[in-house]
Amino acid sequence: MSTVRFLKTDASIWCLTPKATVRVPRTLDDSAESSHALTGLTRRLEERGLMNPPLETSFSATILTSSDCNFGCYYCFQNVADGGDGPPDRIARTQLTDESALKITAYIRRRMRSQQRSTAKILLFGGEPLMSFGPCLTVLEDLSDVLSHASIITNGYLLTESRATRLWKSGLKSVQVTFDGAREHHDTMRTTRAGGRPTFDRIIQNLRRVQEATSLQISIRLNVTSETVEGLPRFLEQAAELDASQITLDLAVIRDYRWNLSSSSGASVKRTVDTLLAMARESIAAGFTMARPRNGGCSFCGPPPGEGGAVIGPDGTLYSSWETAGRPEYAMGTVETGYLSGGGEKWQSCQGFSSDHSPDLDHAGLVQDSFDANLLDMIHAPRADGTAP
Ligand code: SF4
Questions:
Q1: How far apart are CA 58 and CA 338, in angstroms?
Q2: Residue percentage of the chain with pLDDT more than 70
Q3: CATH code given to domain 59-298+352-379
Q4: Cα gap 119→219, rounded to integer Å
Q5: How many whole angstroms from 67 Cα to the centroid of ligand 1?
Q6: pLDDT tens per residue across span 184-228
Q7: Rounded to whole angstroms, how far apart are CA atoms 199 and 204?
Q8: Out of 3, 25, 68, 358, which residue is the most buried by the measure of CB atoms under 10 Å away?
Q9: What's the rounded mean pLDDT across residues 273-283?
C-alpha cells in the first residue's frame, strides 16, 4: 500500500512518499493546496515511481524482550490502569528467556525464507528491553549472519558502558533513548517505578560513557508536551557533556490532555511551533542532527499479516504493532503456530491504534505537522551563497 504525507508551510508543500521527500514551492503553484491539485500531484509522483515503498530485502522484526519496565511513566501506552497512589498498572509481565529467544530467531529465519528476504532488521523493544539483557545478546548473536541492522529502544537507565559494549560487539548498531524535556520536567515524569527516583543525570552519564566506549549511533527522542515545550532549550545545556555531532535529535509531540484544554486555538499551535523551531535552530548550532520528518509508513506493522515484518512478544506471541503488543485481546498467533486464520479484525497498525485511542491526537498532530513542514523548510533553505544544502 502506498502512502503520502503532505505538509504545508507558507512557502512550500512537502510530499513525503515512501521513497522521497519532494518540495513544491507555493510561489510556483498557489493552487497546490486544493484537493484536486493534491490528487494531480499524487498522480505525478506515482508516474515517477515515488509512491511505492523501495524494494525491501530485509524482514523487519520487533522483539519485546521484556514487557516489564523499571520506569512508571504516567502516559505509557502499555499502562492498563491507574495505580492509585503508586505507578500505573502495566500489561502483564513477561520476560524473554534464552529458550524463547531461539524459538523467535528460528521463526524469523522461516519468515525470511517464505517471504524471500535475505536479511533481518531487528528492533529490541520493551517495556524496558535491558531488563532481559542476556536474551538480547542471544537474539543478536543467533542472527549475526543475516543481520542488516539491529537497534534498541531503551529508557537508557540500565544502558551501562559494559552492557552497551557487549551489545555493540554482538551486532547492535543504534540506540534510541527518550527524554521528557529538560531535567526538571523529565525527573517528574520519567522516574523509577520503584521509589519514584529521578533518572535524567544517570541517563546522560550512561550515554556519555556509551559514546566513549562504542560507535553506536544514538538517537534522542525529546518528548514535547504543553508542560515541557517552554523548557526545551535547557536540555541542550544539561546534555552539554554529550558529543552532539554523533546524535540525532527528534522532537516528538506526544498526546497530552492538558494541552488540548489550554491551547486549542490556531494561535497557540503557531506559538508552540515557533518555540520548537527555535529549539531546532539551537540544536543544530550545538552540533545535533535533527531527525528528518518521516512518511509514516512502518515496516513492522505496514503489510499485514507478517509479510514484511512482525511484532513478537517475550513469550513468542505475535501482534500486529507495538501499540497492541502485550494485550491478550490483540494476540494474533505465536511463533510456533504462525498467524491465526481469521484474525484480521485484530490487525491494527500503530497509526490506526493511536488514532482510535487518542482523542486529542488532532491537536498534537497539527503541531507536529506544522513543525515538520517548517523544519523541512529550515533544513533545505538555500545557503548564504545561494547553493542548495
Ligand atoms: S520507559 Fe517507556 S516503556 Fe517504560 S513506562 Fe516509560 S514509556 Fe513505558
A1: 19
A2: 83
A3: 3.20.20.70
A4: 23
A5: 10
A6: 999 999 999 999 999 999 999 999 999 999 999 999 999 998 888
A7: 9
A8: 68
A9: 95
Can you tell me the distance from the alpha carbon of 123 to that of 248, in angstroms, rounded to the nearest whole number?
18
Burial of 56 (0-12, 13-18, 19+ CB in 10 A): middle
Would you mind telling me the total number of residues written for the chain in this entry?
Answer: 389
DSSP state of 316: S
For ligand 1, say whether the CB of 199 is within 6 Å of any of its atoms.
Answer: no
Which of 310, 324, 313 shows the shortest CA–CA distance to 96? Answer: 313
Antiparallel, parallel or unpaired: β 289-290 and 21-25 = unpaired
- Nearest atom of ligand 1 to the alpha carbon of 155: 1
C-alpha cell, 123: 528492533
Ligand 1: centre distance to CA 54 (Å): 32
Q: Is the predicted pLDDT of residue 388 greater than 90, yes or no? A: no
Q: In which element (H, E) is residue 310 found? A: strand 309-312
| Other Cβ atoms closer than 10 A to 314 | 27
Judged against a pLDDT cut of 90, whether residue 53 lies above it is answered with no
CA neighbor of 368 nearest in space, from 280, 237, 287: 280
Ligand 1 close to Cβ of residue 78 (< 6 A): yes
pLDDT digits (tens, 9 = 90+) for 66-87: 999 999 998 898 999 988 888 9
Of 27, 47, 56, give the one whose Cα is nearest residue 297.
56
How far is it, in rounded angstroms, from Cα 315 to Cα 38? 45
The span from the CA of 232 to the CA of 237, in Å, is 10
Domain boundaries, the chain: 5-47, 59-298+352-379
pLDDT tens for residues 128-140? Answer: 999 999 999 999 9
**Confidence band (pLDDT; 50, 70, 90) for 34?**
low
Stated pTM of the model: 0.89
pLDDT in tens, 343-364: 666 666 655 555 555 544 467 8
Name which residue sits closest to atom 8 of ligand 1, judged by CA. 76
Q: Return the CA Rg of the chain.
A: 21
| Residue 322 parent element (H or E) | none
CA distance linking residue 103 with residue 81, whole number of Å = 31
pLDDT of residue 389: 60
- What's the 200 CA to ligand 1 centre distance in angstroms? 14
Single out the residue of 176, 172, 187, 175 nearest to residue 138, CA to CA: 172
Write out the three cell numbers for 330. Answer: 490483540
